[in-house]
Records
---
Amino acid sequence: MEIGFIGLGHMGKAIAANLIRAGHSVRVWNRSPEAMSELVAKGARAAAKPTEVVSADLLMTMLAHDQAVRDVMFDRGVLAAAQPGLIHLNLATVSVAFAAELATAHQERGVSYIAAPVFGRPEVAAEGKLNIVVAGDAAAIAKAQPALAAIGQKTWPVGERPERANAVKVAGNFMLASAIEAMGEAVALTRAHGVAAAQFLDILTNTLFAAPAYKGYGAMIAAEKYQPAGFPMPLALKDIRLALSAAEAHNVPMPFASVLRDNLLEAIATGGGDQDWSGLAQLAARRAGL
Amino acid sequence: MEIGFIGLGHMGKAIAANLIRAGHSVRVWNRSPEAMSELVAKGARAAAKPTEVVSADLLMTMLAHDQAVRDVMFDRGVLAAAQPGLIHLNLATVSVAFAAELATAHQERGVSYIAAPVFGRPEVAAEGKLNIVVAGDAAAIAKAQPALAAIGQKTWPVGERPERANAVKVAGNFMLASAIEAMGEAVALTRAHGVAAAQFLDILTNTLFAAPAYKGYGAMIAAEKYQPAGFPMPLALKDIRLALSAAEAHNVPMPFASVLRDNLLEAIATGGGDQDWSGLAQLAARRAGL
Amino acid sequence: MEIGFIGLGHMGKAIAANLIRAGHSVRVWNRSPEAMSELVAKGARAAAKPTEVVSADLLMTMLAHDQAVRDVMFDRGVLAAAQPGLIHLNLATVSVAFAAELATAHQERGVSYIAAPVFGRPEVAAEGKLNIVVAGDAAAIAKAQPALAAIGQKTWPVGERPERANAVKVAGNFMLASAIEAMGEAVALTRAHGVAAAQFLDILTNTLFAAPAYKGYGAMIAAEKYQPAGFPMPLALKDIRLALSAAEAHNVPMPFASVLRDNLLEAIATGGGDQDWSGLAQLAARRAGL
Amino acid sequence: MEIGFIGLGHMGKAIAANLIRAGHSVRVWNRSPEAMSELVAKGARAAAKPTEVVSADLLMTMLAHDQAVRDVMFDRGVLAAAQPGLIHLNLATVSVAFAAELATAHQERGVSYIAAPVFGRPEVAAEGKLNIVVAGDAAAIAKAQPALAAIGQKTWPVGERPERANAVKVAGNFMLASAIEAMGEAVALTRAHGVAAAQFLDILTNTLFAAPAYKGYGAMIAAEKYQPAGFPMPLALKDIRLALSAAEAHNVPMPFASVLRDNLLEAIATGGGDQDWSGLAQLAARRAGL
């Protein structure tokens, strides 16, 4: 397919490279040009302006937050430059409110908007093993399937309204943060009784919690190694905030999410802003004087 | 081995049956005699009094809480009747404070005390697939190994001090309760946005959270089926209380455990006392008016 | 003074009436005209458009939330119509972010912006007994003093940056909500032990907590009378949300505020949206099955 | 009256002195004899053994916790030495479970048991201005009135069942802790926006929160002076634990109390064990990096 791609951070670079590898024709744009050069070396074409990439079958964007999407799509004129019939696949985690706003704006322009947030860290993206939650027009999703297949191990459709995919994504990240916090508190408790973190987590993550999320973060907690930050505290706070505001829109109380928000704020306020979010376990230990 | 076994609830019956199946000579006692008859039918001998079962190589007990253990071991004279050299394997989840008290009392009597709390529901026990966390004298644990092998898939030693095994157990149960609560809140959030619980949990429990704990409880939450109660709310509250008091003994704050305690109290106070603890998800939904 | 006044809700009406009573010349505007008629009957002049009221020494606004202020000041052109030298006294509780934005916009226009949020319910406003927290240019505050004196018992200056006054106001409302929640939980505890709410609150609000906030809300809790809603749940949620976002701007964790947010969401989701925020006590009792 | 008095800590000394000053005949006993000497200098007689003080009209005890009361009344034989008809006024804050146990034990002995926990710090006790919550037999309370009048400004009866008075007391202390925490969080929020703690608290504690509790603790928070500890963190933790267990006995969730418990544990674990409980405000500030 002809694919335009905007947003070449850690995730975007890995995803775009997989599209090229799968034989798609990819035109890229990124705010800082260095990342573009890397992709050009792998076979992409570079665009001089973001509006250039829309002459394609499919536009894919992987941007950091609502504001970055707003900047590219609205302020820099990408949506206005798009032709009716284009499909826009937004891979980023945006707020459910903004997802709804984007859906309306695209509809007015005759562009299909597919929310397609992904589960997986950069190394998972590099292997083409992302799990992709998609919501939007079924026919458009079907057309985008070759691109989705190139970057993920599975596509999980959740209906037509794009914000549903975003709700699933932020709820999933909330569950990850909860798993980290629960491990952190449990490790503080057992360490206080003389059991090493590695020993405790070895038992739990090989039995009841033998899942990727627990094994990966459990290893970081056991090693007390919170850097480099695969998913830094401020991004984690952003996602918990998105979960809380998506919940608030429908009056859903989330006491665990509230605890996580407070803990992430404290971690950031007390010097942990460049740690991975698994550093929540360090906070749990510090609170116990460990 | 010659094994005395006290406590034939759902878990105890399944465990004792596996001991018989493995060829051990088992003498049982239980407060209500019906359960003894079942085991006798499978090859056990019934004791008229609990003190009779101690003339064995190994005493195993599976009782519901501290008070029941205290009643049998102290008030009914089982420990006083024991000969020096006996090994007592306590399979139940008791408080860390009581675990330490038991250890001392056994030592004074010359009986080896092994804390051996297990992870696994009755059906797992029936399959002989429990995970057993053990703490106590290493030589005694080695002697008990034939019995442990008959009832569990793996034994996880965590040192000599018995209360360590109990700390691991209550911390593990705390992690289970946290996983349930996190699923419950996440499902409330996504349901409010129109995503069915089954759909959301299908995604999460087959990707990041593809672990036994999430799959099992996730299925109950998706089906909104909280009865029969594999692990009823009041027992869950007991275990969270044990986690909190074990933590308090070393000044370990556990904000997630505090939320769980409040939620379990509310669930019980508002009619959910005979539900499985996965009913915490129902509470999360009800709070959101769902 | 010549005073323009926009926003004639329960609070605004009472405040404007006191300005008239003190001899000021007051021109009013309100979105729905009925409220204007009431004030005209007391001696005010009605404006046909909000922009008309700015030809005055002082503009006072009492609007419900950020969006209402934005609508009047920006969308309806009130700020654009203002002459340099005008003083704008904003009595409403707005977000600290918006307070800063307003300050800048007014400065560019040469208009003095004074944040002047008030503590006090409508009946307190009617008695001219409000406590007014002010922040802004000291000279402008001095000029506005005759108006402030007419509506409040005391003016509390907190510096030049307007958002400080808003931070104080939302922090104060957070403390009120905390007092309500604490009474609610304490009453649930003592009722469960057989002590009537009125008896318990009689002791506490006449001894350690002999303060207006406790006496007022305590009386509502003792009577279980949460309607009419002097300060309805949704407004309370708005204010707690403002406190949380003001805190988040500086990475300040507020665990009590998080609990309050969850509880207010639940109260609203389960049918309490038209109750006074003291209805939090009803939620505390319901959770205990009382 | 003839009064026996056991327990001469800060509170007990001040109370016993007021009894002497009011003309009562007081015989004292205390574990460490120094405190007895002080009281003898003021007119008391010293007992050689605690059992000596029971030959009186009234026995008053002011001991630190359940264990201390158990030690004196049961282990040291004070209750066994008492004559039927004696009235025992227990001024301490004990658990509701122990209050019920004490009531039964006294009844079997023919001794009237009155729970009479007090609100007020040592300086308030010294002025004879305590507020005393009493529960027990009405006739016995009437007989004890001369003593109660000598030590408190008011007696608040809450019925016959002694544990009710204890429930009121621990609920009141929970409200105090909540007020401190709320001030601490509010001060962290406003300090982060540039408002000094003293300035913020000056406004709030002279308007909505013009109550003794807020003024007293507010002054300590404004001065950041948490020592000497009028009420040290570990005692505060004990009282919150008593509130939580009294609540748990009737399935009453108390989310604020849970937050307080976690915060007190953290304060103690991180070096604040010898601070006054108003040091919770320091923890709130530290969490925000202030």
---
Amino acid sequence: MLHILHIGFGEIGRDVVKAILQRPAAATLCGIVDPHPNLAGKNLRDLLGNPSAPALVVQPTLAQALAEGPKPDVAIVTTGSRLPSVRATFAELAASGISSVSSCEELAFPQLRHPALAQELDALAKAKGVAILGTGVNPGFAMDALALGVSAVCSQVTSVRCVRSLDAGKRRPQLQKKVAAGMTPAEFQQGLAAKKLGHVGLAESAALLAAGFGWTLDHIDEKFEPVYATERINAPLFDIQPGQVRGMRMTAMGLRDGRTLVELDLTMAFAAETFDQIEIRANPSITVRALTGLPGDQSTIGLLVNCAQAIDRLPPGLRTMLDLMPVRALGTV
Amino acid sequence: MLHILHIGFGEIGRDVVKAILQRPAAATLCGIVDPHPNLAGKNLRDLLGNPSAPALVVQPTLAQALAEGPKPDVAIVTTGSRLPSVRATFAELAASGISSVSSCEELAFPQLRHPALAQELDALAKAKGVAILGTGVNPGFAMDALALGVSAVCSQVTSVRCVRSLDAGKRRPQLQKKVAAGMTPAEFQQGLAAKKLGHVGLAESAALLAAGFGWTLDHIDEKFEPVYATERINAPLFDIQPGQVRGMRMTAMGLRDGRTLVELDLTMAFAAETFDQIEIRANPSITVRALTGLPGDQSTIGLLVNCAQAIDRLPPGLRTMLDLMPVRALGTV
């Protein structure tokens, strides 16, 4: 039986908590932390509108959750995308001897943007005998770990391409805003300059793939471009006119000696097709397509809980999905 | 650097050896064993027609290989499909402190047909601190481990279906014979009764999937049926007339309380479409299709070498692909 603490009771966090409660034979939810005044002090039964949920009270801090409840084996953390904003939480958990699994996008490959911070967390985790892991559908699976897993059948990978496309109209309002839905071309350029648009994690996926195949990249070239509506799209929260932005296309190319070893192509737009595709150029070359796509939020929730369930398979330290997908091909160099 | 010994220099073994030689930075081939009089005593350079291959001589026995060469970390064993016929090899390797990775189909889930033998090998492997693992494209990946790996994004799996279809005309003559190509309906029934036809491993895949999702099956229902040609198929080794057998369709259903939890559907026939598809009914339901298929022999070779490369991630004992795919969903019960 795995004892799980959950930190961050937002939209994703709420569904993580429900997913934990759906596997009573394997996991016990032993606490919830969220300092938000609408949540702290509230009873889980009321928050979920489910009288058969455990009578847990959301605690405002980790210290209070640990004082109130049993010691968890692992905490699932769904609070932020950027590592510096979640760092203190991982450090506090590690100091308390608790492993972390988090959807923090930059934690999928923390060495990329925060090498010093990664080193600090790795040393702390090792000293305390806990693991810290970043996961989620993207980064963490659809455009990285799944390709590494599929490559188990391959020899001599020469390059990999992952394409993810999703209909933003079917996603949370938060994501719909993030992809610039309804903006004019000028507004898009402003939002891009202000770094208010786009998706965190494409470069992390590229770095994870390269590390998995044993490639040292010279650099990762990220691009963001708008996708314009050619006809009106009338959705609940957005009435997108022709010529306005219906979403974004983001690419990340991992290059070495002028060769593109990793190519990632992510479209999140209203009225876009929904699928994931992985193309591995190797012996044999393999193309795998998720015909259903890998639905964003639900897949992230599954990964968080399934990785928490596998936490004892990870040696102490700051870990990545590479440690949980040990069978993969080697890349050629 | 991993030191690999190879046992069994047949068609697959030869390509395994080539794949090992293609990754000189990661692995060293330190010996080859095959007692066949056409092979034992021969030099690898001559056998491969490759003067830059290592000047290794094929040894007739494991004992002689160990006397001649350095101690390997792991042996890749490609000698037989049935566990009783390969058992002595695994035992001898374990006794010498060497882990095994093998394409022996029954080793993919040895507990299914040989529980006593599995227990004996497990105890021996644990006593000697080595791992023994069965892998390959099928069983071992296409219809089991890949589905478990994809399920990492799912919660509450209610059932799983894996469909594999391949054009036998593009495979080795050995496989073409195994699928009854060119037989009359009467010959097919005779071959089936004599157990000379079909594929070892579908039930193993069903058992592996069930174990992965935490399901105890009441039983596994295996069926074999011929696929008849409706028009002439003129292939190099077979001239198949309308009404003759062009291949086989095999199914395995894993049942519990009358519910089908696992459904496997394998077609190996001349002029069949080539693809693999995995359908997971869960939250979310996911359908993934390998548009290229997962080519049989090449994929098995990749898996053997890639699993050998991951052997230090396995604790001692008789292991399965479940141990190398730790992130997966739980099934509902």
---
Amino acid sequence: MTPANDFSVWMQSIQARTETALDHRLPAKTIVPTRLHDAMRYATLGGGKRVRPLLAHAAGSVFNAPAEALDTVASAVEMIHVYSLVHDDLPCMDDDVLRRGKPTVHIEFDEATAMLVGDALQALAFQVLATPSLVSDSQRQVSMLALLGQASGSRGMAGGQAVDLDSVGQQITLEALEFMHIHKTGALIRAAVLLGAHCGNADTTELSKLAHYANRVGLLFQVVDDILDTEADTATLGKTAGKDEAQNKPTYVSLLGLSRAKALATELRDEAHAALVDFGDRAQRLHQLTDFIVARSF
Amino acid sequence: MTPANDFSVWMQSIQARTETALDHRLPAKTIVPTRLHDAMRYATLGGGKRVRPLLAHAAGSVFNAPAEALDTVASAVEMIHVYSLVHDDLPCMDDDVLRRGKPTVHIEFDEATAMLVGDALQALAFQVLATPSLVSDSQRQVSMLALLGQASGSRGMAGGQAVDLDSVGQQITLEALEFMHIHKTGALIRAAVLLGAHCGNADTTELSKLAHYANRVGLLFQVVDDILDTEADTATLGKTAGKDEAQNKPTYVSLLGLSRAKALATELRDEAHAALVDFGDRAQRLHQLTDFIVARSF
């Protein structure tokens, strides 16, 4: 099998096992409140590229982490990501009607249900990450929970969304745009990588190298997203294309132009690769995943 | 000092230290994103009866739990409570403009900010509960985090809110009303009591007795709330009075009538007291707190 084929098989297997892992950890539709559980499943299952679960598994593979533990951290991080999309799509935020090729939760159900879906998915993410004996050292598990809390909160993802709201229609600098993305997207991507590594008992030095890798990949992911929002159509994206420009949101493309944004993506990819050097072949999946994220945009 | 005076002094001291504990655990207004942090502090500080922190401290006092640990669990539970109020007040939910005597967060700030305030407070609650070495046994701390996740999520508080939404304008039975409140209010009250007890290393039997106590107090609290909503005025409540009737929401008063609702409150108080018998004088604060909750309604 060629390396590219092998990666594609690996990626599909992680996406499939993530779907199963999420399915098992979400309450059944038959459990009261049935409508809420139905909506939580609608929001979470059957879609998405599962980039964060892929990163968690790839980081775990560096340290031979147990697959079951990786499923748990991948599920927790993906639930946080999904809740943020559900809330972000609400009328008081981005007001979007399409997500992952389906009507958004507040369109398919209603606004109050969409709010509660997000709230309940966030709680479930922490509950899932607090699975007994997830890792052998419970003190490590407590710090993993603190990490997810920080990554999701006002100094992480939710904080990035607040800055994003304030930036609409504003002239902002490249530094301010980077600050926003490091929080809005980067914090949770970093958490996915570090939680995966924690499952394999990575030490402080290893975690610090992976944090550097994750910071580059987090920005890379956003630069690529901005390029895609400009170039792709709605059918390909599964969400409304050209939304950033229509909403007058600052992006890497609006600030740098398309070709410099692509050059920045290449630069970030190289920095991400460089951060993995010390792990040698063990970081193969992280290396391939980085290339895959870039390839989406070219 | 009379017992009543002594209790009142204790209560005020816990309320004061809870204010300080929350203040220390919330990001400063000067930290970016400043508007979000300002709104988080506006929502959380300077108001509220702090019933859940009082319960956590009272439960902890049964086992001589360290005050600092109790401040941490009290802060975590209160942050969950406050986030639920902020989301509940939004136009797509209860659409309320007054809370704790002040304009609600979406009125004082805006809807998107109110949504993010709730989201970020929930994340912070888990981060706070994941404070390193909160209790000596980290495995216990992991199960405390799982407990808060369950109490807050779709099979706890958020689930109760979903049932509440579905019940507006519906004829429901007393059993269905009880189911709703056991989740909407009861789950977090139970978590407050149990987390306080965990800080004092309570064993399984002790936790189970306190869970029974908390279940009775959770319902008691709601019955009293329904009585107050009928009898008190907006100025006294600090929130809009008569709201339940105006919104055609089922309550204990609408289902049972005022005098039978008051009789139920007395009955629940007696059951709560009975659940504390084995703890003797060590449960003095829990005993007094139960009486205090009832006294609000007579």
